[in-house]
Write a structure and sequence with these properties.
The protein has 423 residues and is α+β, with helices and mostly antiparallel strands. The protein is built from 14 helices and twelve strands. It has an eight-stranded mixed beta sheet, with helices on one face. Helix 1 runs antiparallel to helix 4 and helix 4 runs parallel beside helix 11 (339-354).
Length: 423
């Protein structure tokens, strides 16, 4: 396979001695105090945000839209990962205030918690982090978040992890599912405890996460959200599962895992230990309809994940600026063309990350023209390409931009092959 890529000017690597190239960034971006978590996020293309603020108006708006926890399952979330509506509102406010829609989409963020203005008392044994992707409606967004989250958790020493996942679909899908589940619980209302009958009046979805034995039995036998998905939502969910299978990520479709129907849509997922009694280490939700609830003229594709890590007591060293600059000024650009290549792209990126080889990529872009422009803009001397043929052969094309020579290399051999370029 031959790709026509104009010759790209070869540039030298940043000087570790001098610290590196000057890092220019907007006022809302901060590369200070990044540790291993931040480094993994950077590798996958997430930009670290400075301290985020929850204002009183964010809390007021959240109360208007919804009350209580967003994710409904069999955990009260007093420990482990949790998601708050105020945080999502604060992030969308930042997106609007800084006119981020004028930037190349999608926007990928990484940030630390708690937000400034969060009045909750943090658990001293835990540290919390978040990843957001705004402006990406396709299934690759979920795949990027899940893969990045797992890489962060594995780097922190977590093992025996799996993904619990479900979909409530789009507005049309959710409306059908809501009607069916309300009818189901009304039919079985005499089987519900008195307290749960009252809960049903406010939010029937809450019954899916109730710990009462009668509610658990009813939840296991109630209508499933995935049976009411529209064709578009069904395809979206199918693609996410294909990514998980390609990445060999263990997963379970959890029909009792739902999200707040007032602003959430499509995908909900958790990352957990194999121990069913352990709290969730990560919770992810898609909240495409929230922007409209906040006054925007249309929906804004958005999905985020909240992660929880245990504090070990060991000193977690922050990255040196030279290490950050190396990641921000990669010598390699990765391109993918076609759905088959996109499915395997995250495995390639993870191969680079494990080998500590920075790479620029934009997995959310489908057209080659946009990706070629990305390579030219960043003056990367090496281009790694995966098309449909390469995806089937589990290989990539490595192209030297200066000499225009290229060679096909197996994905498993990428790291060793690139050593000759001293990247």
């Amino acid at each position: 396979m031959k790709f026509k890529i104009r010759k790209i000017k070869k540039t030298g690597k940043p000087s570790a001695k001098s610290g590196a190239k000057k890092i220019e960034h907007p006022k809302y971006v901060s590369y200070e105090n990044l540790n291993q978590v931040g480094k993994t996020a950077l590798f996958y293309g997430f930009t670290p945000l400075a301290s985020l603020h929850i204002h009183q108006s964010d809390s007021t708006e959240a109360k208007k839209i919804s009350e209580g926890e967003i994710v409904v399952d069999h955990d009260n979330h007093t420990e482990g990962a949790s998601v708050r509506l105020e945080e999502k509102i604060a992030i969308l406010r930042l997106y609007e205030r800084e006119r981020m829609w004028t930037l190349s989409q999608p926007i990928l963020f990484y940030y630390k918690k708690p937000f400034v203005g969060d009045r909750r008392k943090p658990n001293p044994r835990e540290s919390h982090h978040g990843l957001e992707i705004i402006g990406a409606e396709k299934s690759i967004a979920e795949a990027i978040l899940i893969q990045t989250s797992l890489s962060i958790l594995h780097s922190a020493g977590k093992t025996d992890l799996h993904v619990e996942i479900n979909s409530i679909g789009d507005k049309e899908s959710l409306a059908r599912f809501t009607r069916e589940i309300i009818a189901y619980y009304r039919k079985h209302i005499n089987d519900l405890p008195a307290k749960c009958r009252e809960t049903m009046k406010h939010d029937v979805f809450s019954l899916l996460g109730c710990d009462h034995e009668a509610c658990k039995k009813l939840a296991n036998e109630c209508p499933k959200a995935i049976n009411f998905l529209s064709e578009e939502s069904r395809q979206h969910f199918k693609e996410i599962l294909e990514y998980l299978e390609m990445l060999e990520i263990p997963y379970n479709i959890n029909n009792t895992l739902v999200a707040n129907r007032n602003y959430c849509s499509e995908t909900i997922f958790e990352i957990r230990h194999d121990n069913p009694s352990a709290h969730p280490l990560a919770i992810g939700i898609r909240y495409d309809t929230l922007a409209r609830r906040l006054g925007h003229k249309k929906d804004l594709p958005a999905i985020g994940v909240s992660l929880c890590l245990e504090k070990t007591g060991r000193k977690n060293e922050t990255l040196k600026m030279s290490a950050i600059a190396k990641i921000l000024n990669p010598q390699i650009c990765f391109m993918q063309l076609g759905f088959e290549a996109k499915l395997k792209s995250l495995r390639v990126i993870e191969t680079f990350r494990v080998a500590d080889i920075p790479v620029i990529q934009s997995l959310a872009k489908d057209k080659m023209a946009g990706q070629v422009g990305m390579a030219e803009k960043n003056h990367t001397p090496i281009v790694v390409i995966m098309g449909k043929k390469e995806a089937m052969e589990d290989s990539v094309i490595i192209r030297d931009s200066a000499t225009r020579s290229q060679e096909t290399v197996l994905v498993t051999d990428i790291a060793s092959y690139l050593k000759k370029y001293k990247v």
